[in-house]
Amino acid sequence: MSDRLPISVLLLARDETGRLETLIPSLDFAREVVVVWDADGDPAARGVAERLGARVFERRFDGFGPQRQFALLQCAQPWVLWIDADERPDAALVASLREFMETAAGRAPGGREAVVDGVRDELACSSIRFVRRTWFLGTRIRFCGWRDERILRAFRRESAHFDDAPVHERVHVAGRTADLRGTLEHRSYETLEDCVVKMKRYARAGAEKAWRGGARANAFDVLVRPPLRFLRQYVLQLGVLDGAHGVALCGFAAAQVFLKYAALWDRSRRERARPSGGPAAGRATRA
C-alpha cells in the first residue's frame, strides 16, 4: 500500500460487470478507486466494484458532465485519473505516472532533478496528458479521425471541475500541463451490439446537448449531415486506409449523426406545432 500513488481513479459504471472484474485489480498502483454507479444499471456491477475494494457511490445518471463532477467531489487523493471501464493504462503510462509523482513529491531517485518529457517543475503542473489508442471490433484504428490522440485525463483534484454537458464533457483545469509517455488503451466497441447500444445512447445525449444549446433541426440536417460525416471520416480523415473496419466505423458514425438529428428534428417539429409563445427556434449546430 505504501508504494501506491496519491491518485484517485475516477470511474463511472452502469452494466460493465465483466470489465470491472479485470480493470479494478489492474489499478492497484493508485491509492483509491472511486466508482459512481448509475442507479438504473446492473446491480451486479456495483457488487463487483465493492468486492474488489473500490469506494462505490450510487447516483442516477443525468449526463456525463454532472455524473463525473459528482464523482470528482468524492475523490480524496490530491491527483485524479479519469478513465472509463473500457480503458486501460499500459505499463509505460503507469511508470510515467510514478516517475511524475515521485518528482512532484521531491522523491526523485538519487536526489537528482527528474525530468518528465521536458517538464522540470512538476509542482507547477496541474494536469497531465497522454496518448489514447482506440480499438474497434478487435482492430486498432489508425485513421477515421481516431488516430492516436493526446488527451488530458489526470489532474490535481483541487484545480479541476467538469462542465455539465450531457455528452462529450470536458474537465477544466487551471495551470500547466505535462505530457507523459505511455498509452491509454481504449477498447470500447468489441461487438456490434456494443456499437448499437452506444450509438443510440450518444445520439440521444448529443441531441439533448444541442437542444439545450438552442439548436433546432430540419429535414435538411437529417438528410445531409449523416453522409457528410461519413465522407469526412472516410475520405478526409483517411478512414479508407483502415479497410473494412474503417467502412464500418464511419458507417456507425454517420448513423449516430442521423439518429441525433432525427431526434432533434422531431423535437423541433413538436415545438413548432405548439401554440405561439414557446421558445424561439435557433440554428442547428455542427455534428
What can you tell me about this protein's structure?
- The chain is α/β, with parallel strands linked by helices and about 290 residues long.
- It has 2 domains: about 5-190, Alpha-Beta Complex (Spore Coat Polysaccharide Biosynthesis Protein SpsA, Chain A), CATH 3.90.550; about 190-275.
- About 40% of the residues lie in helices and about 25% in strands.
- It has helices at about 15-25, 45-50, 65-75, 90-105, 190-210, 220-235, 245-275, and strands at about 5-15, 30-40, 55-60, 80, 85-90, 125-135, 140, 150-155, 160, 170-175, 175-190.
- The strands form 2 sheets. Strands 1, 2, 3, 4, 5, 6, 7, 8 and 11 form a 9-stranded mixed β-sheet that branches.
- Helix 1 runs parallel beside helix 2, helix 5 runs parallel beside helix 7 and helix 6 (about 220-235) runs antiparallel to helix 7.
Reconstruct the topology from this structure.
Blueprint (H helix, E strand, L loop, with lengths): L4 E9 L3 H10 L3 E9 L4 H9 L3 E5 L4 H11 L4 E4 L4 E3 L1 H14 L20 E12 L2 E2 L8 E8 L3 E3 L8 E3 L2 E14 L2 H21 L6 H18 L6 H31 L14
Parallel strand pairs: 1-2, 1-4, 2-3, 6-11
Antiparallel strand pairs: 4-8, 5-11, 6-7, 6-8, 9-10
Helix pairs in contact: 1-2, 5-7, 6-7
